[in-house]
Amino acid sequence: MLFFVGFLKNMKHFWRCLMNNTFQQITVVVQGPVQNYQGRTHHEEGITQRCLDSIRTHLPGSKVILSTWPDQDLTGLDYDQLIISKDPGQNQDGFCHVNYQRQVLSTQAGLDAVTTPYAVKLRSDNFLTGNQFVTIQQQFTKTELNQQIFSEKVVVNSNLFRRSSHGHRVIMSPSDFFYYGRTDDLKLIWQQPEFNHHDFSQQLIQQAQKVAGTPFALEAEQTYCQIWLKNIARDNTKLLKHRFDINHHDIVIWERFLASNIIIADPQTMGLGLRKISQRKLKRANEYSHIDWLKLYKQYCDNTVTININKDQRHLELRRFFKLPLSKLTFKLKNRVPN
């Protein structure tokens, strides 16, 4: 019995040392404001301190970079490196979401300082509850022939990763909360030139102006994704005229990209904590779940994968069955698709 107890203690110590060594290969870039400012008052008190403390708890040995703006209250914040960038202010280009350049710039500045092979991009108003995403990232390594863009898959959380909107299928609408993968792959996503320097920027602006202020305008996440994906996969990336400007072929291209390059993971099982305004008792019917992604991975990359449909997924699919057609019909009756 004593031998067995000693064996368990030694294995626990070995596992802790192994994981700490793994975590030393990771840098966490925490990006964004650390306090509220005029026009943005929904941050929870102390959320960035909670974010940074959670990294120390769940990724011991990792490096923490805080990439933020001038005049922030940094009292009591625990980080290894601080990067202060000049605030570019809100976007005025007529296409990107108002805080697009803020998010891109603070993420770029943080990733520029990363020297480890792996990195996390984490918003300053979220936090970690575990480190399961490290293991998840290595679990689904197969890809479809000629579909791989990243050197390894990038883990993105399912919260606000939209699969549909108003009952219609949509593409290129991933969440911007959390990204984990090879540092070079995250740089492919976030190390972009300024929006107006893209040769397709004026076309996107002109298209956006036609649907500005309507329910057909792109989601903020669609603007982000369309820009970085067009930048790294030009030939396979469509410039959307509006939120629902897609056909079945476009959906297939998007799904094949997801299966070979992204892992969509649910926050509660990957180790991501959400700010209060993002929490829901039930998963939104319009979001991807991890099981939704697993079905794509099985279809395009590895047909040997076993998928266990749990109770939550069954409830999600049941709500979709009733809710989405009704939502689509209601939207169609109220709105006419733009030319």
TrEMBL record:
- What domain of life does the UniProt record list for this protein's source? Bacteria
The molecule here is called LPS biosynthesis protein WavE
Look up and give the organism this protein is from: Photobacterium phosphoreum
